[in-house]
UniProtKB/TrEMBL annotation:
One of its GO terms (molecular function) is oxidoreductase activity. The keyword Oxidoreductase applies. SUPFAM superfamilies: FMN-linked oxidoreductases. This is NADH:flavin oxidoreductase / NADH oxidase family protein. Keywords: Flavoprotein, Oxidoreductase. Coiled coil: none annotated. The keyword Oxidoreductase applies. Pfam families: Oxidored_FMN. Gene3D superfamilies: Aldolase class I.
Amino acid sequence: MTHFQLKTNLLNQPLMLPNGVVIPNRLAKAATSETLATYSNNPTEKHIRLYQRWAASGIGMIITGNIMIDRCALGEPRNVVIEDERDFAILQKWAKSVTEQGSQLWAQLNHPGKQSPKGLNVRNISASSVPFGAEMQSLFATPDEATHEEIIDIIQRFGRSALICKKAGFSGVEIHAAHGYLINQFLSPLHNLRNDEWGGTPEKRRKFLMDVYVEIRNRSVQIFQSQLNLIQLIFKKVALQRMTL
Ligand SMILES: Cc1cc2nc3c(=O)[nH]c(=O)nc-3n(C[C@H](O)[C@H](O)[C@H](O)COP(=O)(O)O)c2cc1C
C-alpha cells in the first residue's frame, strides 16, 4: 500500500468524538460566510442548493457560515439570523439537505460585537468602549460597553438559537469565539478593560464564553453537541495563552 493510499484510507474512516457522536469521515468544511440570506436575514433556497451540493461531495461534517443570534447585531448584510422560529420550515429543509445524505450539519453561532461595518446596526456593543485603530475608524464605530443585562441577554440568545437549530434537525453548533468577534473581544485583555465579573483576570474574561457554552448545553440537553472555534485568534497574540476549555 502506498503512502497516498494509507492517507486516503484514514480520511475515509469514521471519527468517534469522546461523547460517542460519530462523524462519518475525517473531512470537514470550515465555516465560510455565505451572505446568501434575504435582506431581512432569512435563509433561502440558495442555502439549500449550496449545502445539498457540498453534502453530495461526501464531506463528513459541514459547518455553516456564521449565523447571527440577533437581528440588531449583524456582522455583514445578508447574514442568516436565528433568534426565533419564524424560519423554522426552511431551517428544517436546510438541515435535511445535508443530514439525509449522511453528512453532519453544524451551525456556527456568532455575535459580532464591535466588528460590524458602520451603519449596519443601529448600535454596536462590546466588552468595553475601546475604539479601533486609527486606520479602521472610518469603517468601524467605537462601541458602547455592554451592560450586565445586555450580556445576560446575549448569553440567553446563544442558547435559544442553539435550541432552535437542534429542533430543526442540525447535528450540532459551533460557538464562534475567534476572528475578533464579540466572544473574542471579551477574551482579549486589549479589548476587555472591565473590572467586574466579566473582566479583569483571564478567568473573568473567559466567563462570557463559558456561560454561553453552559447555556447551550443546559438548553440543548446532552445530545446536542457544541464545539468552539478558537483557532486563528487575530487579536494580537496575548489573548488566549493560558486558556483551557
Ligand atoms: C469567504 C470566507 C468566509 C469565511 N467565513 C467564516 C465564518 O463565517 N466563520 C469562521 O469562523 N470563519 C470564516 N472564514 C474562515 C475560514 O473558515 C477558514 O478558517 C479560513 O479560510 C482559513 O482556512 P484555510 O487555512 O484552510 O484557508 C471564512 C473564510 C472565507 C475565505
